[in-house]
Amino acid sequence: MILSKDERTYKFKALTDLWTGSVTLEGKNGQTKKKRLITTGLVGSIRWWFEVLARGLGGYACDPTDTKCEGRNHCVVCELFGCTGWARKFRFEILDEKGNIKTDQIKQDKPFSLRFTPLRPIQNEEWALLDATLRLIAEYGAIGGKTVFKPTEEEKRKKETHHQDFGLIKFIGTYPPVPKMEATELSNYICAGRWQKVGSKGKETAFAWASLQHFWCVNGKTLSRENANTSTFNIVLGRKESKECRDCGKVHDPPQKCPKTNRYPRRYSEHLAKRNDGISKWLAGSQRESKKVFSFKNPARTFGFVKPDLVDFAGMKTRLRKAWPDLQDAEFREGPAILDELLTKEDRS
């Protein structure tokens, strides 16, 4: 396969299945149906992490779900990924191990590639930021959908979809290599006055936590539910551990309903241990707001965010040590150190 001199291809190996949507491809001759690969699901995830990196370098990134960016009046993230009236600057393709366009789901242990072909000139700073973003995802984060699920040690629950790992990948290499750029160069580019800050102040404040300056990661450790009454995940979030039904006192696993109310059970574990604990409320999130702690079992990885005016890195480590008493300071990687590592690695091939 001959590549043009302008496009870049990143090679990865899937450590888990990747989730981009639930649409399936029709099977032939009785074959099992395969889940369809929806490229926008991966582009959206890459964009989200690009925003995390941009904020981590001191820049502004709008909220793409309610952005005011339009046309040439846009932020640095929309410059590359597009917005209303401003097209994305690249064509995005997913390739299989043979270099062919991939249409079905990316499965565990399978190699794949992400190809970015410029449709308009892409600046060296943008390539460097995209490169750092993809490495951040591979080494410390996750990509695609369904990364909000929680691991479990309960035998009868392990195989259920909402307890599976999705989105972990391993970086293999890129062609051609991305020119190395210093953090100050990238920060100057991101913070340049030509980028618009057109989102409302409230919206930017609401998403300010999604920054690499507030990010943390512990590779090699998992938060999970051990049994009906014990959950290290809930310990960290500040939720009650027991899955018992508040109405009848028994444990009902979906799709079971509470026999007393004939409704979906109201679990103790759905509620905070302390109602007035603002930290727990923020970390746990809600149906309309994402939680701020994410954990995977195989390979083991846990990451999340802090909110400095509410909970800092030290406070987060204290919470994690309630679940992992042996957690060492060196295992808890903070975003600023990760950022330095991403931008100073010499091997960028």
List the main descriptive attributes of the protein structure presented here.
349 residues, alpha+beta, four-stranded antiparallel beta sheet, 12 strands, 26% helix, globular
Provide structural commentary.
The protein is α+β, with helices and mostly antiparallel strands and 349 residues long. Among the domains are: 8-200, no CATH class; 245-270, no CATH class. Helix content is 26%, strand content 15%. A four-stranded antiparallel beta sheet has the order 4-5-1-6, covered by helices on one side. Strands 10-11-7-12 form a four-stranded antiparallel beta sheet. A two-stranded antiparallel sheet has the order 2-3. A hairpin with an 8-residue loop joins strand 2 (24-25) and strand 3 (34-35). Helix 1 (39-56) crosses helix 3. It is globular and about 65 Å long.
Mean pLDDT: 85
Query: What proportion of the residues form beta strands (DSSP E)?
Result: 15-25%
Strand order of the largest sheet: 4-5-1-6
Return Rg in Å: 21 Å
Elements, N to C (H/E): EEEHHEEHEHHEEEHHEEHEH
Low-confidence stretches: none
Strand count, sense and barrel status of the largest sheet are:
4 strands, antiparallel
Q: What's the helix count? A: 9
Percent in helix = 25-40%
Summing up helix and strand content along with how strands pair, one would put the structural category as alpha+beta
The general outline is globular
